[in-house]
Amino acid sequence: MFVHFTLHPSALQPHVPYDLDLWRGRAMVSCVMFTMEGLRLARAWPCVNWLFRPFRAQRFLNVRTYVRHEEGRGIHFIAEWISDRLCVSMGPALYSLPYRWGRFERGLERGGVSLAEPETWTERVTGVNEAAAIELEVRCSKGDAPRVCEPGSQSEFLLERYAAFNGCGRRRKRMFAIAHAPWRRRQADVAWSCVDLLSREFPWFRDCRPAGAEYSIRLKDVRMGAPRAV
User: Taking the model in full, what pTM does it have?
Assistant: First the structure.
């Protein structure tokens, strides 16, 4: 699930250690909610990948923006909430990812027979102190067939990114490559009932304006490259 926002570059650039990549002169921020399943090392003995079993299924909320670097264009993770406490220290140490723990809840309201392809559902993510959360209702028409992003569209600009440039605060700057098939997505409607988790954490969020939402059922065989310094 991708929920997009737009804001003036001057409000966001001081908080991002890379040059912003602008869409029609505006900075873009996306809240991305997804479940990762089947995490494993691409080249490892089965006995080694067995050690990853506790981490193979994770839920994420990441807040990301879009940046330019001499290595290319990519995404920059401003913050990432993750459902497993054990992994919170791994992301910063290995990839300079800004992990923090969060509690995730999803509710199916109507349409569909499972959470795999619902028509209307709710998402809620609560921070570690449970004093702040985000909560939203998502509506997605199942009659709208999933499609790849149109060339030159906002969706292509935001979704088809194959590099991540990390390093918030004092963390060492690192990047990694991403490989997967093109996104197949549907348009969605989102109604927010709570944004405390974002507005309290990020002062610039009050300057954000909605810029659309998109939903993808599943993306298989996503590959992450090894991190390297930039």
Answer: 0.88
Give the integer Cα–Cα distance in Å for 230 and 227. 10
Q: How many CA atoms are closer than 13 Å to the CA of 196, on its beta-carbon side?
A: 13
For residue 173, the tally of other CB atoms under 10 A from its CB is 14
Asked if residues 182 and 160 have their Cβ atoms less than 8 Å apart, the reply is yes
CATH of residue 223's domain is 2.40.400
Q: Could you read off the pLDDT of 29-41 as tens digits, one per residue?
A: 999 998 877 665 5
Domain count, the chain: 1
Q: Tell me the sheet residues that pair with 68.
A: 19, 73
Residue 141, Cβ density class (10 Å: 0-12 exposed, 13-18 middle, ≥19 buried): middle
Residues 6+ positions from 211 with CB-CB distance below 8 Å: 4, 5, 6, 28, 154
How many residues would you count in the chain? 230
**pLDDT tens string 201-224:** 999 999 999 999 999 877 888 888
Phi, psi of 221 (to 5 degrees): 55, 55
| Domain enclosing residue 44, as ranges | 2-101+144-229
DSSP state of 64: E
102 burial type by CB count under 10 A (0-12 exposed, 13-18 middle, 19+ buried): buried
Which tokens is 15 given? 């908080």
Q: How many CA atoms lie less than 13 Å away from 75 in the CB half-sphere?
A: 24
